[in-house]
Amino acid sequence: MTLDHAQTSLSSALADAPGPTVFGREVVTLGVAFAAALFVVSSVVWGIAGVDPFQSALGKMVGITGDAVLAVMITLVLWQIRARSLGLKALVACCLSLAAAPISGLIDWGFHIFCVWPRSVPFNAQYFAQVVVFTTSELFGWSCLYLALQYNSQMRESEKHLAAVREEALYARMRALQYQVNPHFLFNTLNSVAGLMEEGSTETARDMVLRLANFLRRTLALDPMADVRLDAEIELQLDYLRIEEARFSDRLEIRLEVDPSLRAARVPGLILQPLVENAVKHGVAQTPGAAILIIGARRDGDGSLRLWVENSVPSGETSGTEGMGIGLANVANRLAARYAGAGACIAVPAGHGRNRVEIRMPLVR
């Protein structure tokens, strides 16, 4: 059996066994490199000792090939017990190396007999012991390299699995947070429809329900892990405000203060929904006269993105977050999950009779 055949058998065994084929290729590559390095080192050492490295090349190739077959067998055993502790695998590797080394010594003696036939070659116990010691260190060295590679592969797979679990958990959390928005918005809108019906405005209530159905059809199809363009997010909020237009069309003024260069920026879908909804519920709806609602966006000096919703509040009141706990907390939690501490949702002073809530997040285009 040649070195190539031995390496091929190892690769096939690893491919048939459960586990990534990438690891099998890494083992084969490491094995070939180890054998080549061993051949070069032994040639240099024997050359220093006065042995012609070219004349001894065939003998070294035979010895290395035999050791490679033994290394393959040890490797297959270590692969079978890959789930055991590192200490146990190291002990098994040491015992197998000690057990296999005499076989290598016998192969070396047999090849020597073949080369000098028909002359007899007496058994040299001292030389045999030297071969056994050298081969033991050689096989155990390979085993340690293999175990290190195996451990590294297991750590990489563990990290990939952990990353996948974290991504699944994040996805589930983001979906839960988004689904908190939809019922909250739905309940408020249905209350508005009920109010219109009590006032006798059935046609207006009917139009509002139809607009609500169209809006929910679009929002429920959004992927909570996918970002949307800022202009698309703002357009969704304008769709929502068209639903509320049935109640406030005579006194609600909507303004956009969006930097045109930011319209292609990417933001989490429906991130502005709770802010706009609370601005309508706690600002516009409570203001008896004309009310203004502003949606704005700009780039800060540090390169981050700042979004805000500003609205009128009843005369005599100051800006604050009363009644906005659910919506504000929802947005803050989504930003924390999405940007890992690089996003925030806060209420900021906006002057007398005004309320303003800002979102700060990394600018992604």
Which keywords apply here?
rod-shaped, 2 domains, Heat Shock Protein 90, transmembrane, alpha+beta, disordered N terminus, 12% strand, two-stranded antiparallel ribbon, single chain, 365 residues, 9 helices
Summarize, please.
InterPro entries: Bact_2-comp_sensor_kinase (IPR050640), HATPase_C_sf (IPR036890), Sig_transdc_His_kin_internal (IPR010559). Residues 172-252 form the Signal transduction histidine kinase internal region domain. With 365 residues, the protein is an alpha+beta fold.
Provide structural commentary.
It comes from Rhizobium herbae. This protein has nine helices and seven strands. It has 365 residues and is of the alpha+beta class. The chain folds into two domains: 3-163, no CATH class; 250-365, 2-Layer Sandwich (Heat Shock Protein 90). Strands 2-4-5-7-6 form a five-stranded mixed β-sheet. The longest helix is centred in the middle third of the chain and has 74 residues, at 125-198. 29% of the residues are buried.
